[in-house]
Amino acid sequence: HALQVLLIFAKEDNQSDGFWWACDRAGYRCNIARTPESALECFLDKHQEIIVIDHRNSRYFDAEDICRSIRATKPSEHTVILAVVPRLSADQEETSVLPLLNAGFDRQFVENSSITACYNELIQIEHGEVRSQFKLRACNAVFTALDHCQEAIEITSEDHVIQYVNPAFERMMGYRKGELIGKELTELPKSDKNCADILDSINTFIKKGKEWQGVYYARRKSGDSIQQHVKITPVIGQGGKIRHFVSLKRLHCTNENNKQVSYFFHVIIFVTCSKLIFFESHSFKCKNRRKDSTDIKSITSQSSDAPSLQTRRYSSMARIHSMTIEAPITKVINIINAAQENSPITVAEALDRVLEILRTTELYSPQLGTKDEDPHTSDLVGGLMTDGLRRLSGNEYVFSKNMNLSHSHFSVPNTINDVPPCIAQLLDNEESWDFNIFELEAVTNKRPLVYLGLKVFARFGVSEFLNCSEATLRAWLQVIEANYHSSNSYHNSTHAADVLHATAFFLGKERVKGSLDHLDEVAALIAATIHDVDHPGRTNSFLCNAGSELAVLYNDTAVLESHHTALAFQLTTKDSKCNIFKNIDRNHYRTLRQAIIDMVLATEMTKHFEHVNKFVNSINKPMASEETSPHSEGSDCECTANIKNFPDNQTLIKRMMIKCADVANPCRPLELCIEWAGRISEEYFAQTDEEKRQGLPVVMPVFDRNTCSIPKSQISFIDYFVTDMFDAWDAFAHLPVLMQHLANNYKHWKTLDELKCKSLRLPSEN
């Protein structure tokens, strides 16, 4: 809601007018009171967050008495009170603010009738004291929830000093709160049933800011050990430093002969001001407790009609169990339906809601709020995560070149004989992550893909695998590069070369190399080379909105990615001189083709979160559990051998690899990162310009060249798409150099954003 301000001035003057118009500019609601009585009455009615009292002249009223009378009321504990004091002459000495503070004032403001000065003061109060008060109010609500939570919760400082435990924790551990607060965790007795290195393992996780969860034995006050399921979440404060650890604990129970079923319903309280996330769980363990359970709260808002719900549930069960072919999701639904049968009605309703969610198609895509989200994030995500807004205007976007392949002639550059020394010298460094692709672009006259491709493909034995000559490979690279648009500021052959370079770098990492076969490596390098061929410099959403030929051809689904793969194979097979696949047998070709298509389609952003989540759940988590297992020797060879035994896992790795290579710009050295940011922004600006010219829906309104903040757009992209994906990829491939660049680059964009600088560099760096 809009902030409310109360001005207490006996007489209207320039100063009261200054605050009045400052409130108007800031969008605050403002009331003016002329007497102490009307001021108190107005405050008790409206509960304003800020009060400004005229303290310049005691002839009309005593400002300190008014402040004390307001402070005597309960609502004032969340109010900031400002005293307007007279300006001192040059020969007057500054007076102490203690009398004002003792009277209940929070700040003083030396009279200044400038609207801007008044506005600045109010804005500072809002962003400082008022927001702090909001946080305190939210904390009161949070701690009330924690006190009534049935899970045991413990909050410690960054030094592991206990600062809070809830009543459930006291009941579980047998201690009273007063016996624990202020003690270090190391002072409490430990159970001897834990693995010797479990504390080191936990500390390794949480000190990196990562959540740890697992089974842990704790010693109660009585001396007996209990097995707990523990989740420890670090809480990051200002400056990125860990300020607290929140531990959630519940007794670890096992299902005995499948007769006991535990349900956990999590009420999530998000406290955005302090970035705390608490989980309240109600557990129902024994069958004979269900009938008289009274502490569960329905998580659905609809009222229930028990008989009709039961009837509907049993008829659903009959239909599902009659199916002869079960997909994995069908099995999940069967399990949930079976669990519903003997559940209380509130539990059944909650599980019905779960079933509703499972039946949606976008299970992996997070939902962005529309009101309070940063427009840079919502525009960027909206533009990249959808296949078009489907609000067609009747205008059609026609490519600058003819897209009808049967009538097209694709130009092929002249044959490259020998690699010039200046290019060869640059390519000596191509195995380094810090390789400068823009220098190669410059010396090759915007044809870096052929030269880098020849070097990388030779290193990975691509010609030998495909049984094709270097001349055929060279001709193929030339044809592919010729069909990238050099007029695009970003999606050109330099971007393709950059993605090829990143893919080759990833393939050189031990764990990646050990997980993939030679065919996978060849498929990855080819996919990287072709992944954006003939890109028009416009997004999928643009093409769908414009009713382009490609959007119609591919039914508005993965339009560009489908075109890139189809065109690449058409270009390759239409001329024997550049057909790199002509000498491999049919089975190899089909397997290779499928792998290439799958990887290029993975670069389409609507499935981004699905690919990342599958990688985390199928690759990261099993490997992490193997590494932390007391029976594991931690051998990388063993892990990668297990992956090789599961082709689905190899597919997930290849998808993740090309996805990371495709958006690795924020992980490049700062100068390269800045150049890429400028190029992609220019391409988006050009799209917005064209959308406005053609009367099309503007897919990403923030990418207006006159108003856009490039640092904000980079921060949003890194926060939403890059960080989690590269954390997952780094956990698998071990990429410390990239992660350091990412941290440095993010800091660069944050600094620019904090300084309200919309350009790529600080003014001093230009």
From TrEMBL:
Zn(2+) 1 binds at residues 495, 531-532, 662. Zn(2+) 2 binds at residue 532. InterPro entries: HD/PDEase_dom (IPR003607), PAS (IPR000014), PAS-like_dom_sf (IPR035965), PDE8-like_REC_N (IPR057304), PDEase (IPR023088), PDEase_catalytic_dom (IPR002073), PDEase_catalytic_dom_sf (IPR036971), PDEase_CS (IPR023174). CDD domains: HDc, PAS. It is an enzyme of class 3 (hydrolase). Its EC number is 3.1.4.-. Residues 145-188 form the PAS domain. The keyword Phosphoprotein applies. GO terms for molecular function: 3',5'-cyclic-AMP phosphodiesterase activity; metal ion binding. One of its GO terms (biological process) is cAMP catabolic process. The keyword Glycosyltransferase does not apply. Pathway: Purine metabolism; 3',5'-cyclic AMP degradation; AMP from 3',5'-cyclic AMP: step 1/1. It catalyses: 3',5'-cyclic AMP + H2O = AMP + H(+). Transmembrane segments: none annotated. Keywords: cAMP, Hydrolase, Metal-binding, Phosphoprotein. The active site is at 491 (proton donor). Hydrolyzes the second messenger cAMP, which is a key regulator of many important physiological processes. May be involved in specific signaling in the thyroid gland. Belongs to the cyclic nucleotide phosphodiesterase family. PDE8 subfamily. This is Phosphodiesterase.
